[in-house]
Write a structure and sequence with these properties.
Blueprint (H helix, E strand, L loop, with lengths): L2 H53 L3 H30 L10 H43 L8 E5 L3 E9 L3 E6 L3 E6 L3 E6 L8
Antiparallel strand pairs: 1-2, 1-5, 2-3, 3-4
Helix pairs in contact: 1-2, 1-3, 2-3
């Protein structure tokens, strides 16, 4: 490596001390925009479609998915705030006029911005992981729409299971506990769709 090249690299290394904070601010601005957009998208999806989709899940899966989504939302909002803090700084109570004071403030601000960016990145990663986890819980536990159980209340009993057939004379249900059950309409008091047969007597 030539002497001129070494001198130029040394100059760039010295200049890096003065350009490090603006570069970090630019990175933080990009992270803030990305996290804000992702958080807004998650909020819109939760408000518009989340309730309907979560209602189709069993109680335990619904609670788990809701908890994961709310935690992910909190993490993404926190990451957005940290990235905004890193991008724009905090209001200062005094104006720095001295060179040494400005240098110390810049070094401290670089450390604060770097720390805030690291936490924003972790918030983003864990937020996305939790969103994926909630989607997996919903995907694994959602029942097929064709196998939604029906609850048939008769004069003497309640039968829950998959509807096999219904005609003018009777209704046939496939129950996990009773097997195939055929009930005449004269004995049926009410038929309604059910979310699950758990807890049905």
């Amino acid at each position: 490596m030539s002497t001129r090249s070494e001198r130029r690299w040394a100059e760039l290394a010295r200049e890096l001390e003065f350009t490090r904070l603006p570069e970090l601010r630019g990175q933080a601005e990009g992270w803030r925009n990305g996290l804000t957009g992702l958080t807004a998208l998650l909020a819109v999806l939760l408000l518009l479609k989340g309730r309907d989709n979560l209602d189709d899940l069993p109680d335990s899966a619904r609670a788990t998915a809701t908890g994961l989504l709310m935690t992910a939302f909190v993490l993404l909002v926190t990451g957005s705030l940290l990235a905004a803090r890193a991008a724009h700084g905090a209001p200062e109570r005094e104006i720095l006029l001295g060179g040494q004071a400005l240098r110390r403030w810049t070094e401290q601000e670089v450390a604060r911005v770097t720390r805030a960016l690291a936490w924003a990145y972790l918030s983003y990663v864990f937020g996305v992981i939790l969103v994926v986890g909630a989607l997996m819980v919903a995907w694994v536990t959602t029942r097929d729409s064709g196998t939604q159980p029906v609850v048939v209340r008769t004069n003497t009993d309640v039968v829950c299971g998959e509807l096999i057939q219904a005609d003018r004379h009777h209704v046939e249900i496939s129950s996990e506990t009773d097997g195939k059950v055929s009930l005449p309409w004269t004995a049926v008091v009410r038929v309604k769709p059910g979310k699950t047969c758990d807890g049905v007597p």
